[in-house]
Amino acid sequence: MEDLTGRRLVVVTGASSGIGLAAAVHLACRGDQVVLVGRDPARLQAAAERVRENSGERPELFRADFAILDDVRRLAERLRAAYDRIDVLANNAGAIALQPLRTVDGFEMSIQANHLAPFLLTNLLADRVGRVVVTASGAHRFGALDPDDLNKPLRGYRPMGAYGTSKQANVLFAAEAARRWPDVASYSFHPGVVRTRFANDSRIVAFGMRFMPFRSPEKGAETLVWLANQERSRLINGGYYVDRRPRRPLRKAADPQLAARLWAASVKAVGLGD
């Protein structure tokens, strides 16, 4: 049984700013031992200082670029060496590309950074993780996932289409993880439209969301923190949540056959054994 009253170890990816940082601050103030994962060392240090100022404790920092799968493999090795148990893995890191980009691993940037990298990390840590929380998005409605062609968005590229496809993958991944790993609680959630550095970096996204109601990162992180804290008996394993309530995602993100196909394609893409 999980101990939700004592001090837990929580790993938060994409923790340098936005939702990830807000969640890390809240969890650290709760008394959890928080581990921050981010790409930029300077921003990671600044995030650690903010956590320390709010909670009184300085978190551990791990640098990794999810656009490089070897970085993810090294991150998993370092986390395994450092911790025997990870109570909560918050897969929050995200990216959106304004133009068609391939990573060094040969994949469209959004599908790798948002899905394949956290898929790989979670698989490499699965025997030590108690709970997985995935930052998905209502943008999964724009997804057109084809497990047989993960690079399909590169043709006729549209940033929100590629991003939505990766978010569709997030929802399917959490649901399939719950089916394959019944001892590991897995959830995905939509944080709302959050005013963060992530949106500000994308002029297209910022323009498209100009007239939408923005949330603060703290508000956007509420469901992540809630999913990390709730007793398992009160949650739907593999469920998708919005504003701390279960919601059924669109059919294309709730298809168990598609989820199984995505899992198999992802295993092959990142070089994992069956």
Explain what you see:
- Helix content is 43%, strand content 14%.
- It is an alpha/beta fold.
- A hairpin with a 2-residue loop joins strand 7 (240-242) and strand 8.
- The protein is globular.
- Mean pLDDT is 92; it is low at 206-212.
Topology, element by element:
Elements: E1 9-13, H1 18-30, E2 33-38, H2 41-55, E3 60-63, H3 69-82, E4 86-91, H4 109-125, E5 129-135, H5 159-180, E6 185-190, H6 197-200, H7 203-208, H8 217-220, H9 222-229, E7 240-242, E8 245-246, H10 256-270
Parallel strand pairs: 1-2, 1-4, 2-3, 4-5, 5-6, 6-7
Antiparallel strand pairs: 7-8
Q: How big is the Rg? A: 17 Å
- Main β-sheet, spatial strand arrangement: 3-2-1-4-5-6-7-8
Mean pLDDT: 92
Please identify the structural class as seen in this structure: alpha/beta
Q: Number of helical segments?
A: 10
What oligomeric arrangement do these chains adopt?
A: single chain
- The coarse overall form would be globular
What keyword list fits this structure?
8 strands, 43% helix, 274 residues, globular, 8-stranded mixed beta sheet, alpha/beta
Write a short abstract of this structure.
With 274 residues, the protein is an alpha/beta fold.
